[in-house]
Amino acid sequence: MSDVFPGSSEMAARMRAFDWSTSPLGTPDSWSEGLRTAVRICLTSRFPMILWWGDELRFLYNDAYLPLLGSKHPALDKPGSSVWSEIWHIIGPMLDGVLATGEATWSDDLLLPMNRHGYWEETYWTYSYSPLHDDAGAVVGVFTAVSDTTERVVGARRMAALQDLGAQAGAATVEDACRRIADWADRHGQDVPYVSVHLGDISDERWPLAEVLRDGAPVVVTAVEGLPSGGWATPPTEAMVLPLRSDAGDRPLGTVVLAASGGRALDEGYRAFLRLVADQIAGLVNGAMAYQAQQRRAEELAALDRSKTVFFSNISHEFRTPLTLIAGPLRELREQAPPDVDEQLSMIERNAMRLGKLVNALLDFSRIEAGRVQAQYEPVDLALVTTELASVFRAAMEKAGLALTVDCPPLGRPVRVDRDMYEKVVLNLLSNAFKFTLDGTVTVSLRADGEHAVLSVRDTGVGIPEAEMSRLFERFHRIEQPRARSTEGSGIGLALVRELVRLHGGDISAESVDGEGTAFTVRIPFGEGDPSEPIPDHRSASMPYVEEALRWLPPDVPSGGPFDQGPGYVLVADDNADMRDYLGRLLGERHTVRTVGDGDHALELIRTDPPDLLISDVMMPRLDGISLVRVLRADPRLARIPVLLLSARAGQEAAAEGLRAGADDYLVKPFAAGELLARVNTHVRLGRVRRQGEERFRTMADVAPALIWASDRTGLRVLANRGWSEFTGDQGLGEQWQDALHPDDRDRYLETFEQANRDGAPFDIEYRLRRADGAYHWMLEHAVPIGGGVEFGGHVASCVDVNERYREGERQRLLAQVGTALDTASGVRQRLDRLIGVLIDSQLADGCTVARTTGSGRLVTMAQAGAPVDPATVDEPTVVGDNEMALPLRARGETLAVLTMCRTAQESPYDDRDLALAEQIADRAGIALDNALLLAEEQAAARRLALVQQATADFSAATSPQLVAETVATHGRTLFLDHEFVLFEQRDAHRLEPLVVPGQQYGLDRLDLREHSPVADAVTSLAPLWLDQVDDWRGEYPDFVDRARSIGFRSGAVIPLTANGTCIGVLALGSRREFPLDAGDKRAALALAEQCGQALDRARLYQAEHEIAETLQRSLLPARLPRLDRLALAARYLAGAAFSQAGGDWYDVLPLDEDRVALIVGDVVGQGPRAAAAMGQLRSTLAAYLLEGHPPASALARLDEFAARIPDALASTVVCAVVDTAAAELRWARAGHLPPLIIMDGHGEFLSGAHGPVLGLGAGMEFTEEQCSLSPRASIVLYTDGLVERRDADLDEDLERLAATAADLPPEELAVWLVDHLLTDEGPSDDVALVVARLVPAPLHRTLPARADQLAVARQDVTAWAKAAGLPRPLIDDLLLVIGEATANSVEHAYRDRPAGDFTYELRCTSGGGVSGVVTDGGHWRPVPADNGTRGRGLAMIKAASVLSEVHGSETGTRVEFTLRPAVAAVETPGYGQVHGQ
C-alpha cells in the first residue's frame, strides 16, 4: 500500500495500518484514481492539508495538520461533522456548497471558536475548499489547504492595543491618566477584558497586591470569577497582578490587575504582552506624576522669584540712605582737606559712587520685574543725546589707546524715550565695549530704519564665545573672559539694558566673533512729538561709569620706589587701582613694594626678579590669582615663593580652593590693616629662613660623591646636586629629568615613585639612567620621606652607579637563557628565532640577522627580527663600527652561518665585554644549529619522498594537459613553499604554450624558442638550468631577466620535459625571494619534472584519441536538419568535458512521408571510437525500419534484435517519436530511455508511458507504444541524460529541473535556453544529444473577389486561422492590421481603371514563431503623390508592424510581402548553448 500511502510520516503509517474494509470509503484498491492521487499529494506535502470524501465527508489529513487538531487527534476516517462539531455550522455550509456547485471557495483570517485543548479557544484560519472528482467526473470530495493564522491576527491586534495605549500619554493628573487607561480598556476588551490600577499600599482580598508590591514580581492568579468577558462567550479565568515601576527607581508606586481573555491561554506570549501593558500603564502614571511635580516646582520657583524681587527692591532702597550719608560728608571734607588727605578721600568717594551705581542698577532691575517702573517718555533729538553720551568716554578711550568713532547724523524726527533709561542703555554698552576691547576701535552709530531708530555699538575686542551667546542677556550671568581690563561686574548690566529697551517697545540683539569683536544693535520706535529743550547735562549720570573705566587702566609702569626701603620685597597684583594704591601705601613703610594690574605682568616680574612675597587678588583679567599660583608651583625655580591670596569671596570653600592651588595664606576682603601687616611680615621672614636652609643643603649635596635630588610633596623635583647634572648633563628639576630614564624602565620607576609619594614612604629601586654621553647605566637609588603623615613634604634621595655589578649578573643570566632556548627548540628556524628573541629581550641587541653563504657565494637570510641590520660575512668575531657585531656560528670546523646584531643610536656602543659575551653565545649557537641542520636534512628528505609519491598518484589521474598543469602547480607549491610552478607545452618546434592555472596572479606569454633565453637553451640541451639569482644572468639573458623581475621573480629554474628523447614541454619554477635550491631540493624538482613529463605525454595521447572519436561521432550524425513546412526543428550534439572520452549519444530527424516525421535520440553505452561506430549502426538500422513503415514500438523491437548481435550496442537506450503534422498527433516508444518532454499551452509535461527495456538484452520483452494529440504550436523535446543528470543528485529532481526550465519558445531559442540553464559554462560532463520540434500550423491560402464586402470575409477567415494556429493575441492584432491594410489597397486601388478582378492572400507560421504573408492582385496601384495627404499611410503601418515588408508592383499586378515578429522575444544569452550549435 506504499504506492497509495507513501512516506514515513505518522499519518502515512496510520493509513497503511488502518482497516479500510470497515470504512465507507472501502479498501484503497477500490478507490478512484482521483482519491488515490489526492491522498498521495496530501501525505507528501509539508503544508497542512485535509481531504473530505464521500457523503459523510470522511476526514483524511497529513502530519502537518496534527498540531492544528490538538486533542482531537486521531480523527482518521471520522465524519467531518463529528470532528469539528463546534464549528460545523460555519464550515459545513461552505463544504456543501463546493459539493453542490463544483466551485472552489476560500476564507482569510476567519474566526473559528474551537474546543481542541480542553477549553473554548479563539482561533483564526486561512483556508481554501477545492472540489475533488471521481473517475466519472462527479464532485465527491473537497480538498483543503489550511493555515492557522491565530498568532498573526492576535499579535497584530495586541500591537495595535499597545500603540493605542502609548498614545494616551500627556495626562496632566494621575486621575486623568487612570481615566484614559479605563477608556483604553473599554476599547480593547478582546485582549484585556479587565484592568484595575492600585496606587500605593492598597489591599484587596481578591488579589495578592501586598505580595507583588513587596517582591516587585508579577503573580498569576487562577480560578478567577466574576470578571467582564470583554465581548467573548466565556469570562476570564486567569489574571496577572503586576507591579507598576517607579521612575524614581525605588519600590513600585502601585500594582495593576490585568485579566486574560477567556478565549486564549495565559501562555508566555500572553504574559509578555501583559507585562508590556503594565509597563505602558506605569509610564502613563509616572508621566502624570512628573507633570504634577513639575507644575508644583514651577509655582514654587515663581513665588521665590517674586520674593527675591521684593527683597532686592527693599534692600536697594535701604542701601541708598547710608550711601547718601557717605557721599555728602565726603564732598564737604574734600573741599577742606589738604592734598595728601584729599587723595585718600577721593578713593573713598570713587568707590562710594561705584557702589551707588550697582545699587541703582539693582533697584532699576527690581522695579522692572515688579512692574513698578514710572517712565517719563518725551520726544528727544536722539542723535544729539547719543553723541553727547558717547563723547563722555572719549578721554578714557584715548588714554587706553582706543579709537572712538561717533557716527550719529540727525534722524529727521524725534524719538520718544525716557532720558534716564536711554542714558543707562548707552553708558552700559560703552562701558562693556571699553572693558573688553584691549586695542582697536569702538564705533557708535545711529540710523533711521523705517519706523525705528537703530543704535549700534561695535568694538574690535575679545568677542564672545559662541556657546555663551544664548545666555548673553541672562540676569546675573557673567561670561568668564580672562582677556578683559577687569573681572569686576555684577552680571546684570546687559540684562538691565534689554529690559530698558523693551520698556521702549524696542529690542536688542548681538553679533560676535570670538577674538574679533562684538556688535550690539538697539531698535527703538520713533513715536510722535517735537523734541523737548534743553538737553540736560549727562556728565553727572555718566561719571560713575567713566571713573570706573579709568580705574581699569593699568599704571604706566609698575609702582614702587627704591628697593632699600625695608627688609623684604613684596609684589602686589590686583586689577583694582584703588586697592593697588592702598596696599602700596600700607606696606611701603616697611617693605619694598611693587604693584601690577594682572597676573601676566606679575609672572613676568617674578621670573626676572623673584620677590620675597607675592600678594595677589583672586579675580583678575588675563591670568587670575589661582592660575598664577599654579604656574608658580609648577616651576621648580619659583615654587618656593610664598603667596598670599586676597579675595572678596568669603567662606571656607573659597579659602580651601586657594590653598589647594598652592597658596601659603588666604585673606578675605575687607580685612584689617594690622592683620595684613602681621601676615606679610611673617611670610617674608619665613621665606628668608627657608631659602637659607636650602642653600646650606645644596652646598652639602654638591660635595657628596653620589647623585642627590629632592622633591616637594607634589612629587615635583625642586633640587638636584652637581653630581646629578654632571652625570646626566641636565639640571634635573621639574619633570625634565624623566627624559633621562630608560624607556623600558620609565613606567616602572614612575609608578614606584608616585606610590611612595602618595604614601609618604621610603623606597629603593634599580633602574637605568642616561649619562651625558648617551650611554645608559644601572643605578641603585634609596629615597626617604621628608617629614611624615600630615607633615610630609616630599623625598630626598641618593643614587649610586652599579652598572658593573649588574652587567656581570646579566651576563650569567643571559648565557643560561640562551642555553635553555636552544635546548627546547628542535627545528633550524625555531632555534634561530628563539636565539634572536633572547638577544633582543635581554637588550644585548635591538636587531639580529642570521645568514648563510650558498655555494654560489650568495648570502641567504635564515632568520631576522628587530631593527633592520644587513648580514655580514666574517671569519672571526668582529665589532663593525660602534653599534654592530658579526659572529660566525661554527661546528666541526665549518662556518654554518653568521650572526649579525646591532644597537640603535640611543643605546651605548658595543665594547670588548659585549664582544666576549657574544663569542660565548655564538659557540653554543653553532653547535645547536649544526644539530638542527642535520635533523632538518633528514626530515626534508623524507617529506620530499612522500610528496613526490603523492604527486605520482595524482599525475596518473590527469587526463588533459591542463589537469597536468594544475597538478604540478599544486604539488610544486607544497614541495617548495617559496616557489611557483608553471607548465609550458611544446606545440611545435618553435613555440611553447603556457598552461595557465586558476589563481596565478601574473600574465604568461607564449615563448618563442628562436629567441635567446634560458628556456630555449634548456630545450635545446635537454638539461635543467638553475637560476639561483636571476640578476646574475642579466649579461646573457637581459630581456628574460627584465621580464622575470617585472613579475616579481628573483630566483628559479627551467627543467625540460622529455618523452622518448624529445622535448614536449618545460617546467618553470620561480621564487619572489633570492632562494637558491640546495642539492636535495634539486633532486626533488627533477623527480617532480620526470613525473610531470610522463603525465603530459599520456594526456597528449589521450587528447588525440578523444578528438578522433568526436570527429567520427559527428560524422555519423545528420549533416543538417530537413526543412519542413509543418514542423520547426533544432538539434544539438555537445561532446563531454574536454579530454573525457567521446560518448555514443546521437540523434536523427527522418521525414517518413508528406505528413509524418520521426524524431530519434539514443545513447550507446561506452566511449571512444567503438561507441561511435555502434551508434552509427544503430542509427542506420532504425532509420531503415522506420522507412519500411514500422511504427515506433515495432521498429524498436526489431532494433533490439539487431543490437543483440553487436557487442558494443548492448544496454543502449533509444526514444523514437513520430509526429503526424496533418493529424496533430504524436506516437512514441522508448527502449530504456528518459521520457520525452512535451510543451503545450506554456506548460511542460513528461510523456511517461510507452515503457521498454534497454537494447540488446535478448529477453524477448515487449515494447509498448503511446499516442497523444498535439495542440497548435506544441513543442517536443528529446534528450539524453548528459543534459539533466548531475553528480550526487536524484534523477527525479533532475527531470523536475528540466520541466521547470522549459519555456514556450521557438525550437532554436528553446535549445539555447535549455543548454544555458541546465549546463555550466564549462559544458557537460557527459555527451549531450538534444532534438526540439515545434508543430507549425498549416498555411492559409485564399482568393476572393476584389470587392469591399469581401474585406470582412477575409478578416473573419484570417482570425479563424490565427486562433486555430494558437497565435497569441498581440500577434493576431498585428496580423489583422497588416492583412487589412494590404487587402484594402487591393480592393480600392488595383482595379480603378480596369475590370474588377480578384485578390489573393497566403499566410504561414515561421519556425521562429512569427507569421509571413503575401497579398497579390492583378491590378495596378496608383503612385503615391509627394504630398499624399491621407493616402499612403497603410503601407507605412504595414512597414511599422513588420520585421520585413516589400511591395512589388507592375502592369500585371501588385505583390505585398511581409513578415511579423513573434510575440515572445527570442532569448539572447551569452551562455554555453548560444555558442555551441548543432
UniProtKB/TrEMBL annotation:
Lineage: Bacteria, Bacillati, Actinomycetota, Actinomycetes, Pseudonocardiales
EC number: 2.7.13.3
Reactions that this protein is recorded to catalyse: ATP + protein L-histidine = ADP + protein N-phospho-L-histidine
Cell location: Cell membrane
Segments crossing the lipid bilayer: none
Primary site of residence: membrane
Family annotation (InterPro entries): CheY-like_superfamily, GAF, GAF-like_dom_sf, HATPase_C_sf, HATPase_dom, His_kinase_dom, HisK_dim/P_dom, HisK_dim/P_sf
Keyword Transferase on entry: yes
Taxonomic superkingdom: Bacteria
PPM-type phosphatase domain span: 1128-1335
SUPFAM superfamilies: ATPase domain of HSP90 chaperone/DNA topoisomerase II/histidine kinase, CheY-like, GAF domain-like, Homodimeric domain of signal transducing histidine kinase, PP2C-like, PYP-like sensor domain (PAS domain)
Entry keyword set: Kinase, Phosphoprotein, Transferase, Two-component regulatory system
Name of protein: histidine kinase
Organism of derivation: Kutzneria chonburiensis
Protein's UniProt keywords contain Iron: no
